[in-house]
Amino acid sequence: MIKISENAKTPSFEWTNFYMKFADKLLEYKNDRTNLIKLIDKVFDKSNLKNPFMENGELFDDICPFTVFSAFNRQIKMNNRITILKNIKEIFEIDEIVPSEFEGVTFVPPIFTRFFPKKSQRKEDDISNLWDLFEAAINYADNPSEINKITFIRNFDKVSAQYGIKWNITIVLYWIRPYSYLNLDEPNREYLLKEDSLYRDNILNISNLKNPPNGNIYLDIIDVCKEMFKNPDNPHHSFPELSYEALKLWKNKKKKTNINKDEELALKKTVQEHDEKYKESKYEKYTKEDFLEEVFMNEKQYNTLVNLLTMKKNLILQGPPGVGKTFVAKRLAYSIIGERDTERVTMIQFHQSYSYEDFILGYRPKEDGFELKTGPFYEFCKKASNDPNRKYFFIIDEINRGNISKIFGELLMLIEKDKRGEEIKLLYTDELFTVPENLYIIGTMNTADRSIAIIDYALRRRFSFFDLKPAFESEKFETNVIEKNSNPKFKALINTIKDLNKEISRDDSLGEGFQIGHSYFCPNGGSVPNEWLENIVEYEIIPLLKEYWYDNQDKLNDWIKELKGVIK
Predict the structure, then answer these.
(1) Which of 467, 500, 532 is the endpoint of a domain?
(2) In this predicted model, what pLDDT tens digit does every residue of 336-390 receive, in sequence order?
């Protein structure tokens, strides 16, 4: 594995050229994956090694480029790694020297070698999304144009939302373009944020690295590091150098805890410990304290939310646009579970044409007729039923946009707390179906949506309702947002929005349910430029006001003038 010692020679990072060339070659197979799978099988056959990319005795039916890279970046013997690379060089015609040293490379445990779920569990676009990110990452690294940046961020965020991705997507991006992308594994995160780190303050202005970043924040962190590489006091000037140093310190830290001093065994044990940790729980812990840290609520409000959900099993978070209804719903679920378990929290969005057939069960056309297909609620209920000792959360965004009676059908009765566990025959089958007791439903509702009629009584009777309001006056918003923003126009704009909300509340045709929420004004990181403020006002707030006061042009113009005047 990685050879690190205090007396080690200056690393050459010869692996970087081979890895980048192989990434370029892999991209040619984006639309020829069947052939790629056969070639990879040939590599392992020629290496006299078992092909890890098999399921039930057969080759994978599809594969992503990051999974291919994991073939030689797993926890395996060094001579096997080099043998695999030699055969990759030959079979894929890579015009680079096969590396023999891998300074600064993170080798992942076997649990991470596949970056997509099994066929029975994965979504249709999971693997295609990974290829799109792979291509976007290479394009942006080689040509950092604005359009390539936007494409990268979009694909990064899409992939980050997929099953089991988390931090490890940054590891594989580092593999394919090691001088362009930062590996945010645990050793690197710890190194960046240690007390005497040159990076610490600048990184913390962007993220505390407690949770995987979105694409925009990830690139901001990369830019900060690249800027720091220019500092003559910085001991390293590239991501491979940074990763090498971080891994070296990580190894030394393990020495101090009396782990075997032999370097190979020390590193191997470190990887195994990571493996065990992920076997124990592959999800990051998420507690009540984490909720209160992220959400602009106090402990009393949080306890009320939990009690309402426990009491009724069905809860609706209602409020004006921008108060973070969906954000709160997910984090409430995670905090009750105790970790960010995305397998036990799922979300869909209702719309006016959504039906029972979409939601629970219905016939769908296929080439030779129709087939009966299950919907997300049916599947999630089954999942929860098979795991009765753990809680599951089904989040319905914009719940009031759908016809509740039509969508739930005969199951509307079964979602009531005292009817949980009872069985009923489904519309299209003779199957006896039940909504399990360990399933909780959280809906979100935009109170400013004029297109929605009065709430269905059937919905109101079966759910508890909790009002979310703008948090501009909260102490947390003051300390976590306003005080961290050095742009004086930001605070002036917030004060104007507070006045605007008072005006909206007084308006007989609107009211408190139409106020403007705080989430419009929660930037990622610290201070924001004037352009950011202008974009929020021009493209978020003003369109909202035009919808509110479409019949009062004078009032609309006055407030547009007021808002624009504050940020000039």
Answers:
(1) 467
(2) 999 989 889 999 999 888 999 999 988 888 777 788 888 999 999 999 988 888 9
Using DSSP's 3-state secondary structure scheme, residue 73 falls into coil
Which amino acid would we find at residue 564? K
3-state secondary structure 419-433: HCCCCEECCCCCCEE
- Residue ranges making up the domain that contains 418: 288-467
Residues 461, 491 within the same domain: no
Is the domain of 327 the same as that of 386? Answer: yes
- Taking residue 89's Cβ as centre, other Cβ atoms within 10 Å add up to 18
The answer to whether position 252 is within a domain reads yes
497 with 516: CB under 8 angstroms? yes
Of residues 104 and 515, more confidence is placed in 515
Closest CA to 310 of 169, 159, 417: 417
Residue 10 maps to a domain: no
Contacts of 257 (CB under 8 A, 6+ apart): none
Residues in the chain: 568
Long-range contacts of 40-43 (CB under 8 A, 24+ apart): 40/68, 40/71, 42/87, 42/91, 43/71, 43/84, 43/87, 43/88, 43/91
- Region class of 511: left (phi > 0), else alpha (psi between -120 and 50), else beta: left
Instruction: Give the residue-averaged pLDDT of 554-564.
Output: 91
End position of a domain, from candidates 249, 280, 311: 280
3-state class (DSSP) for residue 89: helix
